[in-house]
């Protein structure tokens, strides 16, 4: 007999790292989801930008089920066909010549940072170890990646932290240039800061980082965990900007909701990590390779990427109209289907209040800090679902404003 569970059981059984919503999602299809009580929600959260093709996409289900009937897992002492095919797809579609697979974005960034340190040590000795990152960045929750992240509240309780990591304001090329020198082994940057507030980089900022990394033989790492695999309307955001990194990390949408991460780089740089210098038990397993390969086949087409750009404009137009009526947002920004609405100063700190009100109206969405509402829906969300979801969103905002909770 299956044990019945409730949301309250989370508070009893789980380590209290999260404060999940009061409902338990039970099933989903496309951009709609139903909880255990049968209530319907429109999903603008997308599994934190991971469900690139929505819930239960038939082609992804087929890929998973077919592979599950053949081979699930062998470990890194062996290779497998699905992951090799996925590696070749990524190489053919990007600047990369080598791929490393893992289970998450944090692991992909951990691998990238370890690669950078070893590359620096090999070429310049142990003194070439400095890493430049940016305020309000997010690169994961391992000790190395949370140290590279520019949010001290998430790292200070775990000191002492890995040394020689320095932070400057995002989009401030002048401040970055002062710290990039011959001791620098890497600069790690998100083309769009996601958790930091959905803030797109300026092209001249990324181009300037590229030039200074070249000048000082440092690796430029693009963290595309949230922006990759179609999210910005390009397969990867570096293509939108026309600035090519040395190392790129990918996860989230790469598996369409199935756990998989990847670090992509060139042949010369990739050879820095020889046998035994890094690894993972589960990374690159056949299930992840099969699903990721199908995701790339479906996403990396001109039609789908153009559809993302069109949906972006539809979202922006509707959000601007809502703001014209309610005057809630100081700025609406983002690329593709990664969109942020920053609350006006008089509503500072109230993003979660609106998030909870939206859930009550049957809408799942995200925040990006206390002042920014974040939208990261399926890349193929129907226009009808966008419109209905934004109607629910506006109703939630009106309810909150009307009750004086903002």
Describe this structure in words.
By secondary structure, the chain is of the alpha/beta class. The chain has 2 domains: 7-57 and 302-402, Aspartate Aminotransferase, domain 1; 71-299, Type I PLP-dependent aspartate aminotransferase-like (Major domain) (Aspartate Aminotransferase, domain 2, 3-Layer(aba) Sandwich), CATH 3.40.640.10. It is built from 14 helices and 17 strands. A 7-stranded mixed beta sheet has the order 4-12-11-10-7-5-6, sandwiched between helices. A hairpin with a 2-residue loop joins strand 1 (25-29) and strand 2 (32-35). Helix 4 (81-93) runs parallel beside helix 11, helix 12 packs parallel to helix 14 (383-402) and helix 13 crosses helix 14 (383-402). It is globular and about 60 Å long. The model has no long low-confidence stretch (mean pLDDT 96).
* Most strands sheet: 7 strands, mixed
Strand order in space, largest sheet: 4-12-11-10-7-5-6
CATH architecture of the largest domain: 3-Layer(aba) Sandwich
User: What would the principal axes of the Cα set say about the shape?
Assistant: globular
List keywords for this structure.
single chain, 406 residues, Aspartate Aminotransferase, domain 1, Aspartate Aminotransferase, domain 2, 4-stranded mixed beta sheet
Give a quick summary of the entry:
The protein has 406 residues and is α/β, with parallel strands linked by helices.
């Amino acid at each position: 007999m299956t044990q019945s569970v409730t949301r309250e059981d989370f508070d009893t059984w789980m380590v209290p790292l999260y404060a999940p919503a009061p409902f338990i999602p039970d099933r989903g299809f496309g951009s709609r989801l139903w909880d255990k009580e049968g209530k319907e929600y429109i999903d603008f959260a997308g599994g934190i930008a991971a469900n690139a093709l929505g819930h239960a996409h038939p082609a992804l289900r087929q890929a998973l089920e077919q592979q599950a009937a053949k081979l699930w897992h062998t470990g890194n002492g062996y290779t497998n066909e699905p992951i090799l095919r996925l590696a070749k797809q990524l190489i053919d579609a990007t600047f990369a010549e080598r791929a490393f697979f893992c289970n998450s974005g944090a692991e992909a960034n951990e691998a990238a940072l370890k690669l950078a340190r070893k590359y620096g040590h090999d070429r310049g000795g142990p003194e070439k170890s400095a890493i430049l990152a940016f305020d309000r960045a997010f690169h994961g929750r391992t000790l190395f990646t949370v140290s590279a992240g520019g949010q001290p509240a998430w790292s200070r309780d775990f000191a002492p932290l890995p040394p020689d990591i320095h932070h400057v304001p995002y989009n401030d090329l002048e401040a970055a240039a002062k710290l990039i020198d011959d001791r620098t082994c890497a600069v790690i940057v998100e083309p769009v800061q996601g958790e930091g507030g959905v803030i797109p980089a300026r092209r001249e900022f990324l181009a300037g980082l590229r030039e200074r990394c070249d000048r000082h033989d440092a690796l430029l790492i693009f963290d595309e965990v949230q922006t990759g695999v179609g999210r910005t309307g390009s397969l990867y955001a570096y293509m939108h900007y026309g600035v090519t990194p040395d190392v790129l990390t990918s996860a989230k949408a790469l598996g369409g909701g199935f756990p998989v991460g990847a670090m992509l780089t060139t042949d010369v740089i990739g050879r820095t990590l020889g046998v035994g210098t890094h690894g993972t038990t589960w990374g690159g397993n056949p299930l992840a390779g099969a699903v990721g390969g199908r995701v790339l086949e479906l996403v990396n087409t001109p039609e789908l990427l153009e559809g993302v750009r069109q949906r972006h404009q539809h979202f922006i137009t509707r959000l601007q109209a809502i703001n014209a009526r309610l005057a809630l947002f100081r700025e609406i920004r983002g690329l593709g289907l990664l969109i942020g609405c920053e609350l006006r100063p008089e509503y500072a700190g109230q993003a979660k209040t609106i998030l909870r009100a939206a859930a009550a109206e049957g809408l799942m969405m995200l925040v990006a800090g206390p002042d920014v509402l974040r939208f990261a829906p399926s890349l193929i969300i129907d226009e009808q679902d966008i419109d209905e979801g934004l109607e629910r969103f506006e109703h939630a905002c009106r309810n909150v404003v009307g009750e004086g909770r903002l």
